[in-house]
Amino acid sequence: MAGQAGVPPRVHKRSISDQQRRREIALERQKQSRRDLQQHARQLASGFSPPSSPSQWDDAAHDDDCSHSSPGSKRKGILEGTKLKGGKAREFYSQQLMLPEWMVDIPINLKKDWCIMARPAGQRCLVIAANGSTISRQRNGRILHCFPSALPNGARTRDVAAASHVYCILDCIFHAPDKTYYVVDMMCWRGYSLYDCSAEFRFFWMTTKLAETGALNPPTAHHRYRFSVVPVFECNAASLEAVYTGSVAFVRDGLLFVNRHAHYQMGLTPLVLLWKDAECSLYLFDTDSQGNVPAHQQVVLELCSDGTVVTSDQPPTVLGSLPSDFLQQNAQYLKPGDLLRFAIGDQGISIVDGKPVVADIHFQGLASKNRAGGADSCTKILFQYAARHSPLTITDLLVAIEASDDDGDTSMAC
Amino acid sequence: MAQEVTQILLNAQSADGVVRKVAEDSLKQFQEQNLAGFLIALSHELANNEKPPDSRKLAGLILKNSLDAKETARKQELVSRWLSLDPAVKAQIKRALSQTLDSVVPDARHTSAQVIAKIAAIELPQGEWPELVGSLLANMGGPQVEKPAHLKQATLETLGYVCEEVSAEILAQEQVNSILTAVVQGMNASETSNDVRLAATNALYNALDFAQTNFENDMERDYIMRVVCEATLSPDSRVRQAAFECLVSIGSTYYEKLAPYMQDVFAITSKAVKEDEEPVALQAVEFWSSICDEEIEIQEEYSGDFTGDSEVPYFQFIKQALPALVPMLLETLTKQDEEQDQEEGAWNLAMAGGTCLGLVARAVGDDVVPLVMPYVQENVSKPDWRCREAATYAFGSILEGPSLPKLAPLVNVALNFMLSAMKDENNHVKDTTAWTLGRIFEFLHGPNVQFPVITQENLPMILTVLLESIKDSPNVAEKVCGAIYFLAQGYEEGTGAPSPLSPFFQSIVQALLVTTDREDAGDSRLRTAAYETLNEVVRISTEDTATIVMQLVPVIMQKLNHTLEMSVLSADDREKQSELQALLCGVLQVIIQKLGASDTTKFGIVQYGDQMMSLFLRVFSCRSATVHEEAMLAIGALAYSTGAEFGKYMTDFYRYLEMGLQNFEEYQVCAVTVGVVGDICRSLDDKVLPFCDGIMTQLLKDLSSNQLHRSVKPPIFSCFGDIALAIGENFEKYLIYAMPMLQGAAELSAQQVIRDDELIDYNNQLRSGIFEAYSGIFQGFKGNKAELMVPYAGHILQFIENVYQDKDRDDSVTKAAIGVMGDLADTLGPSAAPLFLQTVFYKDFLDECTSSDDQQLKETAEWALSTINRITNVG
């Protein structure tokens, strides 16, 4: 009630009060002792030393362009590419995808260390959503589409527009029949870099994060193409069966095997493997421009200045050379860096340590400069070669998986 | 039956204990057998004008207590019990209560008003009893219908209580409007009954919080303000006082609406301060004090950063009123009571005026100085002690607020005068002078003060005066202790070099000890002040005075020993003994901590360890059910100083430790004991193991208790960490109990969304505690038991991420969180690598910390980073 009780007399000539102070000081001493002891425990435990190269961490942490994790990495911030124009930009973007090797032999621990997915047929693309728009670029760096999407910051709509540091980078295959971008990997999400995360984690992120946005919804005015996540499975007999013959929404073009520990690394990697046979791919063998499978295996190699022709591997493998007089005669057509088409003759390929060392190749002509991915890689040549002679079959894969069944696989599902 | 109830109710108030007991038992029995019948009988008893006032009053009181209780759980129980009663029963009781408001017996009306408000507090939030406000308003009559004054008075009282009990959002705006209309009508000068006016004014006081909307409206606000101001002129002083109480409340609740009324309010308050009876004048001064409070708070909150277009309502009322306000306050200062310095809790106009002047100085700073100094100079030497005391009080009051450059020259001049005034013939003058010296030392002396008034030259004289005056009467001596306290505090953080106080150290300590022994020291706060000042003197001691501090140990121990031999015959004796023990344990704690912190002086403690411990245990045994907080704190300090040696005391000490952990009611004791468990863990290491079952059981019980104050819970979590670190892998058996508690608390804390400073603080404390627990457990399990923590690692990282995202996270939480990250990586090793590789935030978080200015944070972050780096780069 109102009245005297409502207004306590104020403190008059405040006198000292030490008790609370004693409590606080005691508490502070205890906290300090605890901190000291924990600090001590930590130093004893680890032989404390500061990070060996602080700059390494500075780089990673000050990373506002999402990609590089160590100095000297050839990777550049993806968004740097946006400052480039025309050919420079194409060249830059053509180097940003992780490229599978072809599976020429079965990796050990297939079941334990690998994930599998069906690979949609279509155009492999780098999809970047940033600053309110979405751009997809093909393997050669050319823009496929520039469009609004429901990816974070992928359109200028109230729901998805965001600050400039919010951007997404996806590895996709554009599947023309249903006009859908099938997402096979995720490199950046909302500005967080996933390049240095394991594939297993990237797949987890890709599956959960995309589902939180409207990107998987049917197209609208502000979301021109639907995105769809390609399901990733643990590598076991049942899932192999599923990705090999099970129904999928897209036209299948082989299977991708991804090592679950692999980080996302640009260019060719043996930690992602492509395998196909006639059952699961319409495109087992390279075809000519009329869609016919040539009688002889065709390879595309890059011409070097010394007249040798090489694969796209780093470092490249020399598979032969063109006679110098031939080069001189055709100097106006054949320049270093050109892609040349060859047919493999009856002598085939000599293989040493799993690499072709010399091949019986016959010059056929020039290949398109804009050919996605440039020259063929060794594993592609070997896989295509094997496919014509002694292919790696689905049965071989199943046997390999079953053989590792006894290993007591306890790893996480992907 | 009804007759019987009356007799039982009267017997229950009988002076004869036996009769009373029988009556209480039968009431209890009645209640248990038939609650509805019991409550109806009580309400009828209360409503019945034929019954004796005493039985009616008790009936109402029991009714009230069956609806509300202080303790939350009990209160909840009573609320549900009422709600579950048959509606017909409740209606019958409410009818009887409403009827009682019309009773001619004042006590019955008053009690009934309280009970109605209690029922309203339960039912209105449930949407029940919607007709209450309407039926009360009907009691007030109308243009054609005149209702009796006693009914209106009781009704207004009821409305006031209802507003006090029910929170503002429960009532609809039209109900608020009607209540305010009725109340303001009752306050109006045209109301002839002073009782009605008083009840209305008191009701308005409670209804002010409801009037937000009405205060937004100029016309309604004007009207309310006019009626309140008019009521301050009522012929009845009770109404005037109540009206000023309303003004005080309006001043703080509706500060931003006051501007148009300040001129009038100044005139009213000024008149009251000059002419009215003291209780009224006190409220008038209080109005200005509360405006000062508002303006001081506004300035603190916005740290003086006011731009022209500032949203902050800062009207500088005090600054504007200053030329008239200061003289008004100065005038009150000579209205002292002869006995004011001897009486505890005394409060009069002079005290209120001086206190308000101090607040004015804090609100306006330098501007107050030229208005006060002429008064000081004119009066400080006058023959009338009232003038001298008032002048000194005015000077002392303005020492906090104005800038140091403004004050320092004045104080430098005044200091000598003040020192000589310690020999004034008047006790009050000396009391206030000593207090003023304390203020001078508090605000104008110390390592951070630019123009310190104490110099190597004047220090000897200052101390001579203080040590002489400490022998003065207890009230003066107490203030002198305060002055020495602040004088010592100013020499804090000594650089290790001899303190300027060192030459006087021995004589200061001596004088304080003599003071504690004074026969008359126990009658006031003098003894307490002397011991607490001794604590501060010990804290600022330096190496060259450590010997003197060491010599204090046996002296204080002997005094503590004396308390054990005091004859304790009454509760009063017991309290005196306990207070003295608290002070002495406090001194020992401070000494132990001071000497124990340095290796060169630690032996001074350790050599007395056994004796001190046995004294502390005897202090504990003076009480049966509770332990002594101060003794507990001292034991913690002792454990910290003696290290593993402390183990030998554990067997005897353990039961008191347990008792402390069980003390839910005095949560400070519980908290202090939890801290001591930490001290013991660090000192004994794995030797604490035999006691851990009991300690952990107690701590887990504490955490599960709803009774225990929440502030104790964070330290308990930290204590888990202390225990785990001490006993290492032996913590395994507690893990299944501790982890769910930690995870539960973590989840709860992650879900907190309320933006309330106090809650933010608490949440930070809670999180620090949780992290400290995790750190201790990880560190303890490293090596042999690391795998036990694997299942929790994901959850822990998730929690750290939550905390990382929280913008209210404070530094200590940050430190603790990144420590846990490192400990997790360190203990789990490469098996935690996938977790980190899957975690995006940790690099950002650690980067934020490695670029911090806080060296400790930076180092911990670097360590955590290198540890995580190490494990994620393997394989």
UniProtKB/TrEMBL annotation, chain A:
Tagged with keyword Transport: yes
Statement: the UniProt record of this protein carries the keyword Transport: yes
CDD domains: Snurportin-1_C
Location of region: Disordered: 1-81
Gene3D superfamilies the record matches: DNA ligase/mRNA capping enzyme (3.30.470.30)
Domain of life from the UniProt record: Eukaryota
Subcellular location: Cytoplasm; Nucleus
InterPro entries reported for this sequence: Snurportin-1, Snurportin1_C
Ranges of Basic and acidic residues composition bias in the record: 15-39
Chief subcellular location: cytoplasm
Keywords: Cytoplasm, Nucleus, RNA-binding, Transport
TM ranges: none
Residue ranges occupied by any Snurportin-1 m3G cap-binding domain in the UniProt entry: 96-273
Similarity section: Belongs to the snurportin family.
Reported function: Functions as an U snRNP-specific nuclear import adapter. Involved in the trimethylguanosine (m3G)-cap-dependent nuclear import of U snRNPs. Binds specifically to the terminal m3G-cap U snRNAs.
Protein name: Snurportin-1
Organism listed in the record: Sphagnum jensenii
Automatic annotation (TrEMBL), chain B:
Keyword list, A-Z: Cytoplasm, Protein transport, Repeat, Transport
Main location: cytoplasm
Annotated Importin N-terminal domain residues: 23-103
PROSITE patterns reported for this sequence: IMPORTIN_B_NT
Pfam families, alphabetized: HEAT_EZ, IBN_N, TPR_IMB1
InterPro entries in alphabetical order: ARM-like (IPR011989), ARM-type_fold (IPR016024), IMB1_TNPO1-like_TPR (IPR058584), Importin-beta_N (IPR001494), Importin_beta (IPR040122)
Localisation per UniProt entry: Cytoplasm
Annotated protein name in UniProt: Importin N-terminal domain-containing protein
